[in-house]
Amino acid sequence: MxxxxxxxxGAGIGAPSRYLIDQAVKKWHRSMIPIETLLINTSxxxxxxxxxxxxxxxxxxxxxxxxxxxxTWSTFAVEEHHLIKKNHAMKxxxxxxxxxxxxxxxxxxxxxx
Length: 113
Known about the structure:
Blueprint: H1 3-28, H2 35-51, H3 56-70, H4 73-85, H5 89-112
Helix pairs in contact: 1-2, 1-3, 2-3, 2-5, 4-5
């Protein structure tokens, strides 16, 4: 199958999945940091780490397509900016630290599997 089509198929599932999880977590839990984005980006990092050395088709569908559309650097950046702008420095540092540590750890763990 054509590579761009494989990527589009994965992305077509990843983006709506991100939206649905974001909305569900916001209804279920309010936190001092945007836990929904942290959860999405951490699980997406795991998925990308897991698929990075798989066959091309799996890598394109799940890695580039799904994880690429599922994770959201721009939302993280805007949320981090809002925390800083509202003078919530400790929350901003916590969110930044958790995002980096959990994201890198999840990617490494997925890669080891």
